[in-house]
Amino acid sequence: MADITLTATPLLGGTDIQIGDNRILERDDLALVSIATPLGGEVDLTEALKIAWSLDLPTPTQSTTSGDTTAIRTTPDQMLLLFPHPTPDANAVVQEKLGGTGYTTDQTDAWVILEITGPDTMAALERLCPLDLARFEDGTAGRTMMEHMGALILKRAPDHFLLMSASSSAGSFLHAVETSYRYVT
After folding, report:
1. Which run of H or of E encompasses 97?
2. Consecutive 10-residue runs of the chain (185 residues): their mean pLDDT?
3. Among candidate residues 137, 133, 181, the one with its CA nearest the CA of residue 157
4. Complete edge-to-edge strand list for the sheet that includes strand 149-157
5. What is the CATH number of domain 16-27+110-184?
6. According to CATH, where is 3.30.70.1520 located in the chain?
7. With CB atoms 3.0 to 4.6 Å apart as the test, which of 31, 51, 54, 81 could cross-link to 66 if both were Cys?
8. What CATH architecture is 30-108?
């Protein structure tokens, strides 16, 4: 019997689109792991995040970043940990570093992540997103709808956002973002 090696491919084929001075980049190099706080375990989880990644526990709708790792608070007792990780064992890595202080689930394959940047980014997002992004400070995150799809948006810097949506609608999500940029440039 022949050895068969399966290789994961990016949902959107490694999309990297330049529209004027704006860029839409598929971030298939990032792992996404959900961490839930056990009942009464916030102090232990906070300490574990600090030791493992030098991360502070973010407050709801905020994120904290240390190096290339970001914790995004999605609910009072849950966050997403976003970090570069090339192999399909991100959950095991996070579990080992947390030492049982949080409940984890690998979400990497469930989401598509687009990094968008450029001078027309806010105008493009205003066409898609009902959130008042002008009020977002760097590090603010919010759940929303973009077109008809659920999304999580994270502001990294002025004119620099990460957009996350279900992998099952990755093509439609990319189409909506790209079309919006084309209308405003």
Report:
1. helix 90-98
2. 81 97 97 97 97 96 97 96 92 97 96 98 97 96 96 98 98 98 97
3. 137
4. 16-19, 22-26, 111-117, 160-166, 149-157, 141-146
5. 3.30.1360.120
6. 30-108
7. 54
8. 2-Layer Sandwich (3.30)
